[in-house]
Structure formats: structure tokens, C-alpha cells
Amino acid sequence: MKQMLACLTLIFSTYTVADTLIVQSTTSTKNSGLYDYLLPLLKKDTGIQANVVAVGTGQAIKNAMRCDGDVLLVHAKSAEEEFVAQGYGEYRRDLMYNDFVIVGPGSDPAGIASASNAVEALGRIKAAGAKFASRGDDSGTHKKERALWEKASIDPDAGSGQWYLETGSGMGATLNTGVGLTAYVLTDRATWITFANKQDAVILFEGDPALFNQYGIIPVSADKCPKVKQDAARVFTEWLLSATGQAAIAAYEVDGKQLFFPNAN
Amino acid sequence: MDALAEAFRLIITLDADLYEILWLSIRVSLVALAIAAVIGLPLGTYLAITHFPGRKLCILLLNALMGMPPVVVGLMVYLLLSRSGPLGWMGLLYTPTAMIIAQVVLITPIIAALSNQVIESLHQEYHDTFYSMGVTGRRAVAAYLVDARYALTTCILAGFGRAIAEVGAVIIVGGNIDHLTRVMTTAIALETSKGNLTLALALGAVLLTMSLLVNALVIGVREYAEKRQYA
User: Fold this and answer.
1) Which helix (H) or strand (E) holds A73?
2) Would the pTM count as exceeding 0.90?
3) pLDDT single digits (tens) B72-87
4) Interchain pair A16, B97: CB under 8 A
5) ipTM, two decimals
6) Which of A68, A177, A223 to mutate to test the interface with B (most CBs of B within 10 A)?
7) Do the beta carbons of residue A132 and residue A156 sit within 8 Å?
């Protein structure tokens, strides 16, 4: 069996790329076009070809735990710290931030635009009997949303399938659902700005410090994953954290709007 | 309508990204199809013309496997090829090869089960002749395959259709990486998630056109060959 498969590998060896790096990351960073902008610059500076697999943060972390990534770039700080604490990551550093916003139908039936904070906005959605579309996929955005419901002392699961709609999908798919059902959605700002199917949905609530969205970067540890491309992973990480990488992140704009704000510590 | 115009624009402007993605789709599906046919056709034929205990069960299993959800196949191949999986040492995850493997798993049962049906009906007709001529075993399998070659093209096209259209398996094992493992279906999924519905639909129209061409080509070749044979 092993020989046969080795044979197959030989036949298709032209398909495998010699030395590339796999980055397990989130849909928000990929769909916003950030990587299309950054990776060519990285390649020019360091010669590293990075391939990005974009999934929800929860899945990205699990994939990296199975050693299927060399670098993890996600947005769920406590889960990331847990990942490092368990020995899967070498270290974790803050990389950049933006923020979450709550979008919804322009008519704003729950009147969240005048809410004084995010928790109150969610409370108004529930009280008004309006619909809310949730990622429901253990992603960074989903974790943030669940934490906000908890702060609001609301158990949305009780209304699951009625007013609380868990799509179990990526940010874009959830936005498509939300727009289609005139529901409210918590989304990261970068995905929203680049999302092309807004219809009559608009940003209704923003600016609460509780909606801060921090992205972190972690090179996967060779102790847990011996096959990890440790050197390349470190170079990739350090490049993004360097003045050059940070400036490149700040320079990326869509429609004249900066999507990510570098804050390496 | 916008989508059709967009599809037309993409095709005639020779959009480089589109052709790269389209070519990878075709390459992955055709290689998978070739491997699946080499395994599936003799397997289906063998099961149609031999008798052994458990044969019915094998056929039942093949038929059931036709309904295998691509996501499940993708997941199984992912766990197999994961760096922490049994075949992780080969470093195949997130490569077109991984996508080919997943599609082979997905379409081999389809080709085997459908060809089994075709050969089984042929077998009732030919059984006595072949038996009296002493054509058995491997030679019989080959003889049936050659004889039923026209009918079997439909089985192969069914396999191709499934391979070129599926997204669940290739997105898991390929990762939808730009310029490496992005194919038509994963590109459509991506554009849909970005809300670029017109572009997504346009890509769908391109994929459908391509599928139409492949089917027309195969059926055309078949008709031509059949006519020549009986002329």
C-alpha cells in the first residue's frame, strides 16, 4: 500500500509545490483581500510563498492542532492563548485590529442605532422580536457575539430557529442570509466593507470598545508538530510584526478605507 | 442576464485567472476520472459476471456509496492526509493531488455501480457464448468492457459530472488556495460568500458551458465511432 501511494506521489509530484508555507487563517482577512496585497510583498522581501487556508477561527485552531498549518493568524485571544499554553504554538503576538459592527435593515425595526452600547443593542433586538443571524460556527466573530449575549443576560438558544438564526457558515454566507431575511448580523468591519450584496442593509451600531477585534499571530510549534516549517513560519511572523509588515497592513485600503490597524506589541 | 453577460465577458477577454481556475478544474477532474475508470470499470464488470459469496453485498455497498456526501469524503481524505494523519508524511494536504484523491474516492463507486448495471444485462445475453468459448476471468472482463464501450461512456460521463460539479470535498482537502488549489466550484463558493452574486453566477455559467462541451465531445466521438463500425 505504501509503495503504491509513493508511486502515485511520484506521478503527481509536479503538482506539489516545493517549499511553501500554510497559514491557517480566518475568512475575514482573506475575503477582504488583505492577503492578496500582503503576500506578494512578503515574497519579494523574504522569498517565502505563503498559502492561506481561510476558515473560521475555531476550525483554523483545530486544523493547526492537527499540524496542518505552519502559522495561525486568527482573532479569538483567549483561544489563541490556550493554543500556546497547550504547547501547539511557539508564542502569540498581537498583530493588528479592527472592530465589529452590527448591521441590519435600513429601517432598523429594533432601533439599535440609538443604543448606548453593544449589549443594549442586542437587548433591543431581542425585545423587539427582530431576527438575528449568527455565525454559529465557533469562529472568532461567533465567540465575540456569544460573549455579548452573555453580558446581556440573554440566552439566544431558546429562540434558535425562530428569531435567532445560526447559519453555521462563514461571515459572507451569514451576511447573505441576514440580508435575505432582513436580520441583524454582527460582522467584522473588513468583511462588511468588501461585501458586495448589501442590498438595503447598513451599519446600525458601531464604536463600542466592547466591539474591539484583535488579530493575533502564532507560529506553530515544532515540539508538537515536527513537520512544521519552523524557520519559514518564524520569518513570516517576524516580517508581519516588523515595521515593514506593519506599514504594509496599514497601507491596505478598500474604497479609500483602511481595513486593518497594525498594533504589534 | 447580468450574469450571462459577465460570463461572456470573462470568456472572450481571456481572463487569465478564470482560465487558470478552469484548467485546474478540468485537470483535477479528468485525472480523477481516469483513475476512477481504471478501477471502477473492471470492478463493476467483475462483479457482474462472477459469482462468489458476498457479491450481492458488494454491489449493494457500491450502490450505497454513490450517495456518499462529498463533505464526508473530503473529511475522510483530510484526516488521512493531515500531517498528524497516517499519510501525513506524504505532504499532500492542500495540493491538487489531494483533490484528485478525494474525487477518485467519490466517483469510483459511481462508475463501478453504473457499469455493473450495464454489464449485468449484457452478461445475460452473452453468458452461454462466452462460456462455450472458454472466455473467463480477466479475458472475459476485458471482452465485456470492449463490447459495452459505447454504453459505458454514459457511466464515465456521470462520473465526470459528479467530479467537476462537487465542492464539498475539494474545498476541505484543497483549501481553496488562490493559484494553487482554487477550482471553479470553490471559486463560486468564495464569490458567493463575498456577496459577488453576479460573478458567482457567471462562473457557474462558464462551468456549465465547459461541462456541455465535454459531454458533446464524448457523445460526438461515440456516435462517430458507432456509425463507422456499422457502416
Assistant:
1) strand A71-74
2) no
3) 999 999 999 999 999 9
4) yes
5) 0.80
6) A68
7) yes
